């Protein structure tokens, strides 16, 4: 009987010691993870300070990147807590680091090219008007619903093009964009897309006037501005309506499509002096 009691006492002592050890380990793990969360928060905030110095982020994008850096640190802490000095454990740590470095680098690279919107990434080679509008969301003052719709349409159009190579992309954009953007937003998008071409054409017309000697009495700055505005209005009108009869648009009515006197003079001279055309650099104009 005494031996039985003694054995039972020994067993209880070992059990008690084991329970105490487990409790201490659990308490340690809880405190370790609490500290890990603080470390993860501090590291994520530090990373975001560096990023926001270079890029202006909306709240959704900020949260996405913050969470990426936070999760990276948490997973590392958990991996280190259970790590032994073995090849398998070291590979586990390397895997976690590689995984999150790849994710964060992917996001930052997309951010550099304005392809990151919250947790959604546009393809860098997506030059559709849908994608362009999203990249210029701040200037166009797009709301979240518009951004989500534009991203959806950019991906849908790519899928439709893959299924049907003869798909008229411009016609598709012309049909869908007015249902997402306001009249002013749509016109502003087309203005931004066509400014460079309108400017080049204005410079080309002025150069031809000088070569033909019909620039006397004309102010170069005034002529350039008139030609630029005219070219831009024509380009935007063509991009927006195509061959269809233009619909009512308050923003389009503000754009001047009246032929400038300087361009009328150039066209008249070209019609009279056709022999000079072969001596000049020929720039193709749509009008």
TrEMBL record:
Extent of the signal sequence? 1-21
Cite the residue spans of the region called Disordered: 244-287
Q: Where is the composition biased (Basic and acidic residues)?
A: 244-253, 262-287
Task: Supply the alphabetized keyword list.
Answer: Signal
Q: Which domain of life is it from?
A: Bacteria
Q: What is this protein called?
A: DUF3826 domain-containing protein
Q: What is the lineage of its organism?
A: Bacteria, Pseudomonadati, Bacteroidota, Flavobacteriia, Flavobacteriales
């Amino acid at each position: 009987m005494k031996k039985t009691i003694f054995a039972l006492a020994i067993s209880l002592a070992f059990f008690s010691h084991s329970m105490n050890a487990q409790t201490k380990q659990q308490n340690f793990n809880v405190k370790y993870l609490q500290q890990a969360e603080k470390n993860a928060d501090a590291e994520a905030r530090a990373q975001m300070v560096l990023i926001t110095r270079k890029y202006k982020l909306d709240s959704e994008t900020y949260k996405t990147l913050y969470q990426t850096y936070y999760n990276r640190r948490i997973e590392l802490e958990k991996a280190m807590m259970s790590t032994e000095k073995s090849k398998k454990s070291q590979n586990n740590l390397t895997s976690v680091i590689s995984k999150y470095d790849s994710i964060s680098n992917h996001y930052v690279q997309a951010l550099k090219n304005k392809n990151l919107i919250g947790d959604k990434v546009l393809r860098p080679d997506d030059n559709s008007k849908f994608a362009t509008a999203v990249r210029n969301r701040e200037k166009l003052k797009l709301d979240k619903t518009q951004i989500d719709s534009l991203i959806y349409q950019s991906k849908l159009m790519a899928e439709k093009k893959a299924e049907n190579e003869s798909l008229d992309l411009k016609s598709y954009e012309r049909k869908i964009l007015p249902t997402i953007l306001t009249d002013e937003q749509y016109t502003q998008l087309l203005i931004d897309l066509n400014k460079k071409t309108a400017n080049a054409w204005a410079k080309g017309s002025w150069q031809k006037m000088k070569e033909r000697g019909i620039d006397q009495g004309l102010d170069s700055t005034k002529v350039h501005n008139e030609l630029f505005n005219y070219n831009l209005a024509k380009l935007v009108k063509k991009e927006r309506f195509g061959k269809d009869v233009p619909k009512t648009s308050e923003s389009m009515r503000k754009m001047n499509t009246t032929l400038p006197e300087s361009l009328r003079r150039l066209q008249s001279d070209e019609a009279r002096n056709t022999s000079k055309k072969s001596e000049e650099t020929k720039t193709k104009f749509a009008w």
